[in-house]
Write a structure and sequence with these properties.
extended, two-stranded antiparallel sheet, 2 strands, alpha+beta, about 80 residues, 1 helix, about 15% helix
Length: about 80
Amino acid sequence: MDFTRKARWVKDGHKHPDPDASNYAGVVSRESVRIALTYAALNDLDVLAADIRNAYLQAPSSEKHYIICGPEFGLEHEGKRAKI
């Protein structure tokens, strides 16, 4: 297992009409979170989390997207650029 999960990203999503279908944003299962946290603990890995509200992606993008990390990414990462 590689623990790969989908992430969703919106580019000017507020400018597009609501889709007629496929607007469900699934959530990760409790078991997947527990497995990931156990894996991180066993391998002495830092666990970071962030929340992007109202974000969804309906089509693949060939563009590169970046964010500026806020305090929720940890003090050592705050203000740094992160590729999404």
